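Residues pack. Consider this:
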Amino acid sequence: MASSVATHKWRSRNAARTYIHNPATATTAEVVAWVDMSLYENFAALVAFVSGTGVLTFRIMASASSDGSSPVEVKAHAAPTAADAEDDNLSLECSSQELAALGTNLRYVGVEMDMDHADDICAVTYVRSNPRFAQESLTPDSLIDGVAA
């Protein structure tokens, strides 16, 4: 029998979201999404390569602006090109202290990726953890058409 206990321990302390990255062009690196880190201590990015020929660059970027203007490189993966087959994985992480050391007001982070071909596809998961204030459903039960439930 399945448990009827509603537990929200991990999801109240972590904000996780997966994005499908299917770039329009392989000639330009682009940020998958920008998220606000101001209320979190840590950020991790996990990439699962789905199809195509490979990952060329995988970096965490930071910006003082939600639109990502004037981004600063936080960290780059040492060997992203190793991810060139289905289910190959890459990961990077950074802390709010690293952001503070790089500049003032760098509260937004995002993963910048450059893929080998325009038809390459990967899943990119962002996890923001150790929130200043834990609360129910930082990671929602579902996210359908951009709406959390």
